[in-house]
Fold these 4 entries.
Entry 1:
Amino acid sequence: MMPGHFPPRTAALSPPDALSGPIVIVGAGMAGLGAAATLRRAGREVVLLERKPEVGGLARSVAFDEHIFDVGPHYFFLDVSDDVNELIKGSLKPGEWRAIDFKIAARIKRSMVPWPPGPDAAFKLPPSAILTFLKKSIQRSLPTSYVAGEYMRGMYGQKMWDIFLGPYLSKKVPARGSAEGLHRDWWNQTSRTIHNVSDVKRDKALQLEPELVERYLDRYPSVRRQVEQQRQRAQDGAADGKNPTGLTRIFKIVQGLARTVLNKSHKQVLYPPGGVGTICERVAEAYVERGGRLELNAANVDFDVEDNHVTRVSWDGGEVLNPAQVIWTGSIHRMCSLTGIDREDLPFLTILLVLMKIDGRIKQGEELYSYIPDEGIAFNRIYYPNRSVDGLCPEGKDSLCVEITRGDFRDEAEREKLKQHVAQSLERLGVCKAGDISDTRFMFVPDSYPVYPLDYREKLSRIWEQLDRFDNLRSIGRSGQFWYNNMARSMRAGVETARDILGEWEP
C-alpha cells in the first residue's frame, strides 16, 4: 500500500452518551487542560489526572537554582484559535499576557540566517541557494513525493538541502533513515481533527490529496453536504457567467507560501513572565477554582474495559467507576495496551536538554532559538531563554539550553565529555565563552517527538478503526494522537473534544 492511502474504516465513532457521571481526563498537559477547563466551565464533573507533581507535561518550566528553563523551546502561537486564546487570557493574571514576535534562525554557511529566509538573507546565502529557494517558492505545483527528503528538495531546492536541510534533519531525526524514511507530514506539521482525521478543512495543502478529502467528508457528512451545496452554487454561477476563473487552488497555496517567504512580518506567540509553564499553571488554577478535581502524582493509570466501554479508571490512590467519558492524552502505545487495541510501530524520539547557567550576558540577538546543522556539533538547536522575557535568571546573568537527539549519554563519563564539547562548540559559534558557563544540568525528555514513518497514516487508521468502537473513550494531543504539533493546536484539540462531548462542536 502506497504512503498516504488508507484501508477502509469499518466503524464510526459513536455519538457521546448522556453525561451521567464524572468525565476522567488522563494527562494535565495542553490537551488535557483545554478539555478540563472547557468541560468545567460548562458545569460538568471532571477528574483530571496527572502522574507528575506538576501540570504542563512537555509545556512546563523547571527551575535550575534561580534560572528558569522551559522543557525545550516552546511557544504558544496566537493564530491557531481565538477560543483557546480567550480561555488562556481569562486564566492569566494581569501583565502575564505578553505577545512577542516569533523569530528563529538557522546557521547556514557559518552565518545565522533568519528562517525561513527573507530578502535580508540574500547576502548571507550562496546566490545559487537563494535563487533556487525563491524560484521553488513561487512554482505553480507542489512536490508529490511522500518522502520528506524528496519533498523538501522539491520545495526548497537541492542547494538549500545540501547546505542546511539535509544535514539538520540527519541530526534531528537520526532514526528510521533520517529524512528518507520520514513522511513529509512531519515537516509540514499537518493538521488533524479531534478524531485523528487529516484536517483538510484547515490545512489547504492536504486538499491536494483527493483520498484525504474523501476520508474527511466520509467522517463528517455535514461538511459533505456543505461542499455539495457550494459546488451547486458554483455551477449555477458558471451558467450565469458569474463564476470567476482566477488562479488554480494549487497556485493559491503556493502563492501563500511565497508570501510567507517574502514577508518580513513575524507570527505572534504568547510568552508570559516566569516561562511558558505559567500558561498551564494558570489554566489549572482556574479549573480548580471552578470546582474541578485535579489529582497530581496519579501514577499507574489503569482501565477496566467491557464490550468497548471503559467501566473503571484507577490510579495509585484512587479510582472512578463508570466514567461517562474518558479523554486520554498520554502515550498512544500505553492507551493501546490498556484497551487491547493492537499496537503499531510508531516511534517517539527522546531528547536530551543541556541546561546551562551563564556568568554575564551572552551575545545579543533577536532569534528565540537557532537551528545548528553542523555535523561536528552534537546539538541541533540552541534556545536563548532570556530573549523571550527578562527575569528568568538573576540580574546580570544569562541562560542557555541546547537540544540533542542523537547519541546515548546516560553514562556519566560520556556526559562529562559532552559537557566539555557543548561548551567548546558554543564558544566556536560565538554564542558565549566556555569559561562563562558556571554550571550545567542534563535533562532527558522521553517520548518528546513523534517521528512519522512513511506508512504512519495507515498505522494510525488501523488504531482508530478499533478505538472508534469505544463509546466513551477519546485519545487526543501530541502523544495521544501521535501528532507532531504545537502547544496551541494541542489545547485546541482539548477544547474541541470537550465541545464534541457537550454536543457543541462542528467540523
Entry 2:
Amino acid sequence: MASFPDTVNENDLGQAKFIGELLAPTAPFDQKSGREAWSVAFSPNGSYFAWSQGHRIVRLIPWTKCLKSFSIDHGDEETGALNPWNLSRHNSDRSQTITLDGDPREHTLDCGDIVWSLAFGSSVPEKESRCVNIEWHHFKFGQNHLLLATGLNNGRIKIWDVYTGKLLLNLMDHSDVVRDLTFAPDGSLMLVSASRDKTLRIWDLKDDGNMVKVLRGHQNWVYCSAFSPDSSILCSVGSGKSVFLWNMDKYTLIQKLEGHHNDVVSCEFSPDGALLATASYDTRVIVWDHHNATILLELGHLFPPPSPIFAGGANDRWVRSVSFSPDGRHIASITDDRLIRFWSIEEKAPQAIASLSNGLCCSFSTDGKVLAAGTRDGSVHFWESPRSIASLQHVCRMALRRIMTTQQVESLAIPTPLQDYLTYKMF
C-alpha cells in the first residue's frame, strides 16, 4: 500500500520549506516517557506561541521574537524571507527566562503533572458572564488580558496569565486526563474541556472558573473539541466513529455525523464556519458540510483506500491531527507515515509535503504563514505554509458564509453553479 494514489507522483509534490525548530531539554534515560509535545498553540492576537515540551513543563515564547530570528537575525533584511533558525537545547532549559525591558516575556510554566492540552483565551469586556446573579468576581478580565489554559494528566486545569506567568485558577472536576481545551472565539472566556472521563465540561472564567455545564453522550474517551467561529456550535470527537455537534446556547446535542471507520481524534472548523474537518485513525480526513450533515471531501492517506475493517484497526496511517489555515483554503494533517501534508480544499492530492517523525499535533500561526508541529520527543518543528493569493470569489464566499448557513444559501434565487460554489459543492 502507498501514501499517495497512482495518479500522484510523490517526487512531483512540492516540499514544504522547513524554517526552524524548538528543542526540548535532553531527558535522562529514566525519563524518556512523559516528554511528548501533545499540544502546540498560537495566541489569538499572534503575540505568543506555547507548547508542552514534556515533564510538566509548558514554554511560552513571544512569537515576534521568533519572527525577528527568522527575518532579521538570519534572513534577508529587504525581503523579510523566512530562513531556518534553531533554539538550542540549552536555551530550552527551564531555567532560562527572557526578561528584556519593554518586550513580551518568555515564561516557563511548571504545571505539576504531564500536560496534554493547551488553549489561549482573550477577553472582550462587553461579553458578560452568563452567571448574572453574581455581582462580584475575584478576577476582572479587561481588554488586555491574555490567558493560557493547561489540561493535565490528573484531570486538573490550570489557568495562567500569559504576560506575567502567574497562576490564576485551578479547576478541579474531571476524574481523568484533560485531553483537549478550547476557548469560545467570541471573547466570553467560556472554556470547554474534553476528557478521558467521557465528558465535556464548560467553564465560565469570567465567573471565577465556575463550571456551567457537563455535556454527556460520548461512550468513551473524548479526544478533541472545537468551536465554530461564531461560538454557537461545538464539535467534539473521541474514541468512537461519531462526530458530535452541540448547540452552545442550549447545551444540547444537535446531531451526530457518521462516516468514519475508526476513532476520531481531531477536529476544526474553517474560518468562515462553513466547513468542518475531522481526522481519524481510519487513514482519512473528512471535510463536512455540518449544516446538512454531508461529506464534501475525503482526504486519503493510504492507497488503495482500505476496507472499513482494515481502516478500523492498526493500519500504520493513523491521522493524528488536522488544522485549518486562516485563509480557509488550506488544511494540514499529521500521520503516522512520517509525513505532514498540506492540502488545498479544491484538490484531493496534497499540495506539499514535509518529513516529520513521530508527529502528534499541529497548528497554523494566526496569520497562516507558519505551521507548527509537536512530536513525541517534546520538540516543535516549523514549516512555511503554501502561499497563494486568494481569489476575489473566495474572499466574497467566506464573507457570505460567516453569516449564512448552507440552508440559507440554498434558499437564495441564484444560479445553481453559483450556489454550488458558495456551498463548497464544487469539490
Entry 3:
Amino acid sequence: MTYSPLHTKILNYSTTTRTRLSKLRLLSKVLLAFLTLNVGLFAFGQEENAQLSFLFVGDVMQHDGQIQAAYNSKTKDYEYDDGFKFVKPIIDQYDIRIANLEVTQAGKPFKGYPQFSAPDEISETLVNVGFNVILTSNNHSCDRGAKGVLRTLDVLDELGVPHTGTFRNQAERDKNYPLIVEKNGIKVAMLNYTYGTNGLSVAKPLIINYIDSVIIKEDIAKAKAMNVDYIICNMHWGKEYKPLPNSYQKRYEAVCYRAGADMVIGGHPHVVQPIERKEINKEEKLTIWSLGNFVSNMQTRTTRGGVMLGAHIEKKKGKIVLGDVNHHFVYVMKRKEGAITQYYILPDFNYNLHRVDFISSVEATRMKDFFADSRKLYNAENIGAVEEKIVDPSSSIGLTYKQLLTSYYSVRITSNGSELMTNKTLGHYFHRTVDLTGLRNYLSGMYFDKLMAKGHLNFLADCGIEGLSLVLVTPEGIKIVTE
C-alpha cells in the first residue's frame, strides 16, 4: 500500500515512541496537516503547468467459469479482489482510471455468455482497486433488457462511482453527458459509444449511446461549449479477434478527431490492437484501436490478456500538451487458491522467483507467448513514442509483488471492515483478501517490518477503529501475531 509522507511520519512516531497519543490530539494533528496539504494541492491545481494522468484498461468480462470460480460457499458472496492485487499498485499511480464494464448487473440468475448478468461484487471490486470512471455502453448493454440497464446504473450509483454510456432517460443524459471529470485544474469530457448491442434493444426512455456521426459531433460540440480542456471518445467497435483496425474504426476515428476529440480509446475485439500517437491538423492525438481483455475467461492465444494504457497531459499557458504515453501488457491466469479460484491479472514479472510454481509451466508458456505476440504486433504497427513498462523488481511495485507472493505484516479489522473499504476518504488504506478457508479478511497496510505494522495498528486505534489485530499474511494463511 502507498502512504502519504504525513501518514508515514505518524506511523514512525507511533512505532518509535511505543505510545499512543490521545484520539483528540492525534486527529487534530491529522486534520491540521490535511488542511495544509489541501491548500498546497489547491494551489497546485491553479498553477499554470497543471498535470493529469489517465489509465485505460480493456473489457471487464464475467463468463460462466469466472462466476462459478468466484463463488464463496462459506459467505455466499463472490470474491474478486485478490485477482486484481497485482494491478492495483499500477492503477494507484494514475489520476483518472477508466474501465469498460462489459456485463450487466441485472441480478440473479447470474450468467455469462451470451447474455451477461454478473454479481454486483465485480463492480464493487473495480471501485475497491481504484477505478473512478466506468463505461457502460458496449454490445452487451442490453443483454438483460430494461432491468439490466437500470439495475447496472443503480449499482454504480450506489457505489458512488462516475459512469457514462447508458442512461435512464433523455433528461438524465442531458444533465450528465458528456461526463465531466475535473482534477488538478484540468477539465476533461468523457464520451462513450458502442457500434451495436447484438441485435437487442431497450424501449424508451432508456438510452444506449450508439456510434453515430451526427450524435458524436453534437456531443463534442456540447463538450466544447462547457469549456473543457480535453475530450476523450471511448469507442466500442471493431472486428473481434483481429489484430488491426478495420475501415469502420478508421472512419469513426476520423469523425471524432474532425469534431474536436483529443483521444480515441477503443475496445471490443478482445485482442490488443496498435497504439498511434500522431499529429492531425498540427495537434497531437492519441488512438488505441483496442485494449483487449482486462479480465475474461477467453482461452485462445491472443485473447488471454490485454494492455493497460497510461497517458499524461499537461496544461501549459492554457494549452494542453500530450506528455508521456506508456503501457503494460497483462495476462489473465486462472489459479485455485483454497476455497476460491482466482483469475489473476498479471503484468510481466518473474512471479516464480518469490513463490515457486505460482505460475505453472503451462501457464508460463502461454504468458510468454501472449507477451511475445503483443510485442511483435506493437513493434511492427505502433506509431509515435509509446513506451512499454515492465515492473522493476527493485521498484516499490516490485517490492509489493514480493510481499504479496511471500509474506507481509498487516492489521486486520474485524469491525466495520466493509464500511471502511467504501469510505471515500479512508478506503484507499484498506484492502480485502480471502484466506484458503474462504474467510474474508479486511486488512490495512503492508509491511516487511512487524514494528511498523504495530505502529500502524496504534494509529488506527487512535482514530477510533475497533476490532484490530496484528497479522502475518502468507500464501498459506493469515496468522495473528502476538506481542
Entry 4:
Amino acid sequence: MDKLIISADTTDEGASKVVSGNENLQMGENRVTLKVTAQDGETTKEYVIVVTKQEGGPNESTQDGTGEESFEQFQMTVSRRSFTVMAPDASVQVPEGLVETAITIDGHAVKGWVWGNETEHQYCVIYAMNEAGEKNFYRYDLNNNERTIQRYFEDPAAQGAVSEEVYTQLADKYDSLRNDYSLFRTLLIAAIVVALIFMVLLIVSVTGKKKKSSSAEKKTARSEKKPVKEEDEDEDDLYGEEVEEPEDEPKDDLEEVDDQDEDDFQFEDLDDADDKEPEEDEPEEDSVDENAKEDTEDEKYSEFLESYRVQELVRKYSDYIRYPIRMEVEKSRMKEQPEGEEADEEKAPEYETYTEVETLNSMVPIWRKNKNELTDEDYNSFYKEKFFDYSDPLKVIHTYTEGAATYHALLFIPAKAPYNYYTRDYEKGLKLYASGVLIMDSCKDLLPDHFSFVKGLVDSEDLSLNISREMLQHDRQLKVIASRLEKKIKSELLSMLKNDREKYEEFFKNFGLQLKYGVYNGFGANKELLQDLLLFYSSSEQKLVTLEEYVSRMKEDQKYIYYAGGESREQIERLPQTELVKDKGYEILYLTDDVDEFALQMMHDYSEKEFKSVSASDLDLDTEEEKKEFEKQTEENKDLLTFMKDALDGKVKAVVLSKRLKSHPVCLSNEGMLSIEMEKVLNAMPNDQKVKAERVLEVNASHPIFEKLSKLYAEDQEKLKTYAQLLYTQAELIEGMPVEDPVAFSNAVCELMV
C-alpha cells in the first residue's frame, strides 16, 4: 500500500481541510497530516495520523524488528461514536498501576492494560483517538453485550495508596455488587409485572361486578312491568330474583322449562332494549377521590386529571425522551351511515365518542438529527412552535460539543426584538434538557446578559435528572457549557458580520444596544469579547462601520478615535465642535444612543488608540506656531474673558478663545471625563442625580461678534453682561439643552433689537 485515503467531514460548512503526507508511504512509520481551517480563515487545527507500513502486510507477522509484539490499528463504533484504537507512541506515558497485555476487540488484537495480575478481566484500558482527533486513554468494557467506553482519568489521590491485593478485593466486591444490582433489577421488573397483572385482574373483576349488578337491576325492572297470570306469580318471581336452590333438592332445568307453558315467557325485542335509556348507576366510591386534594383559589388540582393537561405536561417535559409514552385518549368521530339508508341533508350529523391509544411524545429531538437532514423550514417551524414567534429566526446555531462537557445546542437569534425586551419583565435564558428531559424552562446561567436576546435550548447527558436548582447553580458542567456557548455565539455573529453585512446590520438595529450595555455593565470586563461586534455611524463613510474598519482608515498623524454625541445624526452634523476635526480630514463616529459614550469611556481605547470627544477641551490638533499665536491672543484678551466668566456667575468654569470654531460664534466644551451628553443622560434618570459637567464657553476670535464684545468691554460693560448671557444660552441651544429662563432670554433679545 503506497497511498492512504482519508475521509473527513467538518461541522461548519465554510471550513476547509487539506490532507498531506498520505501518498508514497515508506516502510516504517509515516506521518499523515490533516489541516482544518475554520470559516474565519484564521483558526486552524492540525491532526496527525501515524501510519506504520510493514513488509508482507499486517497479518503476516506479529512482531516488528525489535522483537516486540505488534498490534493492529482499527476503527470501532461505541454508542454511535467512532474511535480509532492504536498503540501509543514511545513519548506517551502510560498511567501507573496498569499492566500491559494483549486484548482482542471485535476480532482485532490490540495493546491494552489491566489492573492486577488476574487472567480474566471485565474492564481494560486502551489507547484511542476520537472523532475530533484527540488521543487519550479510555476505559473499555470487555463485555460485548455492554460495549461502553469512558475516558480514563488517573486519580492522583489514589496513586500508590492501594496495593494489588486490596485492589483485587475491591474489584471482587465491585463485581459482587454489580451482580446483586442485576439481580435486584430483575426482581424489581418481575414485581412490577406481577403488580400490573394484579391491577388488570382487579379492574376486570370490578368491571364484571358492575355489569352483573346492572344486568340484575334491569331484569328486576322488566319483571315488574311484565303482565303475568296470577297462577304464575311465584314462578315469575323465581326468574326475577336470584334464588339459591337447596343442595338436597336438585332440579333439572330442562324439565322445568318443558313443564311450563310458552305463553308464560315473554321475550323482549333486542332492538327495543337498545333504545331504552339505562338507569343511572349510583357512583362508586373511588380511593383516588378520597386522597385527591380539593381545588383552592390558588391551585386547581383537578386539572391534572384532565386528558389534555396530561398531554400538555408530557409534551413539555418528556417530549424528547427516547421511549414512547402512550395513553388512552378520548376522541370523537362522526357516526357512519348504515348501509341501505339515504343520507338526510337536513338532519344534523351524529357523533360518537371512542378511545384510542396515542403516543404523546415525539421521541426524536430535532437537535440530535444531522444538519444535512434538516432544512431551513424544519428549523423555522420548530422555532415558531416552541418559542411563540411569528417571524423566522435571523440566525440558527446548531452545534454539538464533546469533551469536558458534552452537549447539543440549538440556538436562535430572533429577527426582531420582543416588545418587552428592554424592560424588567423580559426573562432571559435557555431551555435546559438532560438526556431529552426538560429540567428547566429558562436557565439564566447559560446566557450572559449581553447575549440575552438568544433563544434556544441545551441538551446534555452530563447533567443528572434529579439535580436540584440549588445544585444546578453551582454545577461545573453548566459553567463550562455557558462559557463555550458564549464563544460560539460571538463566532457566529462575527461570521455574519463578515459574510452577510446586511443581515448583521439588521441584527444590530434590534440588539446592538444590548451589546453596548454589555460593555458598560461589566466596567470594561467584556471589552475584548464585544468590541469587534459594535457598529457606529461614520461621518466620512455615511454608514455603519466597525472600530476595526475605522482604525484601518486612520491617518498616520492621527492620535485618537474621534467621536461626537447627540440625539440624531443630523444634529451632530450641525455641531460647531466638529468643524476643526473635519477640516483636518479626520473621521468622526456619531453616537446617538444614550449608552454609547459611557461604553466608550469604559473601553478607553481600541487597538491602542484612545477615544476622544470632539467637545473635549484638549483636542491637541494645533501646530507649534498656531499654539504660540493662540497663547499670545489669549493673553491680550485676558481681561475681557475674565469679565465674561464673572458675568455668567458660575455657569461655566472658564471663558476661552476657541481653536476649533471656524464659522460659528460660540460653543460649549467640557473638561474632565463627564461630557455634556453624559450629563443630559444622567439627569434624565429617575433618581434625579443632578450632575453637571465642567463647562467651558469658547468664543470664536475671528467672528465679527468678538469685535463687538471687545468694543462693549471698553464702552458699555453692562451691555456686555447681557451679550455674555445671550451667547451662553445660544451655546446651550446648540447642544440641545433647555433654556433655564426663556422669559429673560426673550427680553434680552428684544432689548438688543430696539
